[in-house]
Amino acid sequence: MGNGINKVLPDLYLGNFKDARDREQLARNNITHILSVHECAAPMLPEMTYLCLTATDIPSQDLTQHFKESITFMHECRLKGEGCLVHCLAGVSRSVTLVIAYIMTLTGLGWQDALNAVRVVRPCANPNLGFQRQLQEFEDTQAEEFREWFQMTYKDNPFNDTAEILKLLGRLP
């Protein structure tokens, strides 16, 4: 699945297990941090900084427990001007779910808009139905709290992420 590493936002990329070992692609995209989320997530390249989360791609897997840690990892990497690759095995469900939660927290958009934006750059993006339910529940019950936490923690966001996502959605020129 996937077609190599796909840029979602400046310094934020989605990919699959193979991409996470492709030193040429990683270097070309200035990727220094890798968020791995799959059954056997473990550091593979000694020169990279990792966040490894063990999770299966089944609807009953709770990914929301990893949202805050994942959001922090992605954002702090970007603040340093370094690239972050988020991957699972296929780069379709688990990794996409974590990136959607990040986009929701940054922009205030709902999960479906965030998913549609991701699909513009990574058409294979398709969280399983359980993860979609978790994203809906996150939107309904936790996203506002996460946005407040994010704003208190990081103050001003130096990125123009909302505009970037709206451009992907075709809502801004």
Automatic annotation (TrEMBL):
UniProt xrefs under SUPFAM superfamilies: (Phosphotyrosine protein) phosphatases II (SSF52799)
Tyrosine specific protein phosphatases domain boundaries: 65-123
Please give the InterPro entries that the UniProt record associates with this protein: Dual-sp_phosphatase_cat-dom, Prot-tyrosine_phosphatase-like, Tyr_Pase_dom, TYR_PHOSPHATASE_DUAL_dom
Q: Which GO terms describe its molecular function?
A: protein serine/threonine phosphatase activity; protein tyrosine kinase binding; protein tyrosine phosphatase activity
Q: Name one GO biological process term.
A: cellular response to growth factor stimulus
Which domain of life, per UniProt?
Answer: Eukaryota
- Which GO terms of the cellular component aspect does the record hold? cytosol
Record's subcellular location: Cytoplasm
Listed A to Z, the keywords are: Cytoplasm, Hydrolase, Protein phosphatase
Instruction: Show the stretches that span the lipid bilayer.
Output: none
User: For the Tyrosine-protein phosphatase domain, which residue ranges apply?
Assistant: 4-144
The reaction(s) annotated as catalysed by this protein in its Swiss-Prot or TrEMBL entry are: O-phospho-L-threonyl-[protein] + H2O = L-threonyl-[protein] + phosphate; O-phospho-L-seryl-[protein] + H2O = L-seryl-[protein] + phosphate; O-phospho-L-tyrosyl-[protein] + H2O = L-tyrosyl-[protein] + phosphate
Q: Which family does it belong to?
A: Belongs to the protein-tyrosine phosphatase family. Non-receptor class dual specificity subfamily.
Task: Give a short account of what the protein does.
Answer: Activates the Jnk signaling pathway. Dephosphorylates and deactivates p38 and stress-activated protein kinase/c-Jun N-terminal kinase (SAPK/JNK).
Q: Which PANTHER family match?
A: DUAL SPECIFICITY PROTEIN PHOSPHATASE 22, DUAL SPECIFICITY PROTEIN PHOSPHATASE DDB_G0269404-RELATED
Q: What is this protein called?
A: Dual specificity phosphatase 22b
- Species: Poecilia formosa (Amazon molly)
